[in-house]
Amino acid sequence: MHVFTIGGATQDIFLTYHGADSMTIEKRNFAEHYMLFESGEKIEIESITHITGGGATNSAVSFKNQGFEVTTSCKIGFDAAGDFVFKALQDCGIDMSLVLRSTNYETGKSFIINSSQGECTIFAYRGANNHLDLKTLVCDDLKQADLLYITSLSNQSAEILPSLVACAQNFNIPIAINPGASQLTKGTESLKLSLKHVKTLILNSSEARTFMIALIESGEAYKKALKTRQPQELAEPTNNKPYLLDNPVAYNNLYFSMQQFFKEVLHMGPEIVVITNGANGVYAATKELIYFHPSIKTHVVDTVGAGDAFGSCFVGSIAQGYSIEDALRRGIINSASVLHYIGAKQGLLTKEQLDEQLATLDKSLLQRYPLLS
Fold it and tell me: Which of 9, 59, 309, 348 could disulfide-pair with 54, CB 3.0 to 4.6 Å?
């Protein structure tokens, strides 16, 4: 089975030291976490690590580890960072024939600083990632693919989404998409139109909130469909119900339901909508049920790439015939493994390793809830 990944490619530069101080601000329905640096302070770091990153490359290596043949398409510069990315992926056995090289834009870079809790703040320079186009990526190039996995398309690159989806649709290629901020805000209408051809949509909780707000702002119909009662009017929260299903999203003094969000997005076309919520677990919704699996408790070294590890493994598992329940479990296992290492690729598991850990995972952890009628 051949997977085609498209999206971002970067050189990730990790600045490692004892970890920044952190601060948490509790708001009405959620908390925000901040890393703190004293103004004017000179910070001495312990090490600098260079690794490849970006959604297209992270997912490509993950799919390769699962046993797929993989072609990736991304845009990098004709520079040392671009050479670094190209060689690293080539060494992993990824088909690089559709990687675009730019003389006008530098390879994207991410500068990553860790907190004492293992969380990271990322300073992202998009560079060539902002300028991915279809002029040199011919629709016929997709013919060989059995699955198209679209990761974040930054800024101008987001404009290719409808054409890319249409190309895949012409060849009846299943599509999974993990969109970025540009597609969720500036490209909301294009994303909505594209979703009718998408099988699986994957978002993290922050991205889901961004997309929900974009939908609310796009028209009264979505505002009415997603609106729920204020928290004090709701029934008492249950101790065992997952957080996103028990807590409405606040926006402009109104409250909106994540369950209704699942329902509305599923109506746009996807068969499965997934929301990852970090240490609090993962949700996957179909037209009948919402599945929830808590995260696996593990020692966290670095959180970068955990979402890519989950999404690519979940989609790969579905493509290989696993049930949605086992796809969730395998995705969470893969994500937990990546958390043990610096960077998005070192902890990625093989198909055999995933199946071995799947066999020992407590199956009772997974919960099911009916989708709202």
Answer: 9
| Position 81 in a domain | yes
Q: Establish if 27 belongs to a structural domain.
A: no
Domain extent for 66: 2-20+47-370
The pLDDT assigned to 238 comes to 52
Q: What is the pLDDT of residue 296?
A: 92
Residue 346: name the closest of 9, 8, 3, 12 by CA.
12
pLDDT computed for residue 311 by the predictor? 97
The number of distinct structural domains making up the chain is 1
144-148, 192-196, 230-234, 348-352, range with the lowest pLDDT: 230-234
Q: Write out pLDDT tens, residues 45-74.
A: 888 999 999 999 999 999 999 999 999 999
pTM: 0.91
Q: What is the mean pLDDT of the chain?
A: 88
The reply to whether 37 falls in a domain is no
Residues 6+ apart with CB under 8 A from 367: 240, 242, 291, 292, 293
Residue 162 has a pLDDT of: 86
Region 337-359: what's the mean pLDDT?
A: 94
CATH of the domain at 100: 3.40.1190.20
CA distance 198 to 212: 18
- Mean pLDDT comparison of 146-155, 246-255, 313-322, highest-scoring range: 313-322
Q: Are the beta carbons of 62 and 56 closer than 8 angstroms?
A: no
Q: Which residues of 206-224 are buried (b: 16+ CB within 10 A; e: fewer)?
A: ebbbbbbbbbbeeeeebbe
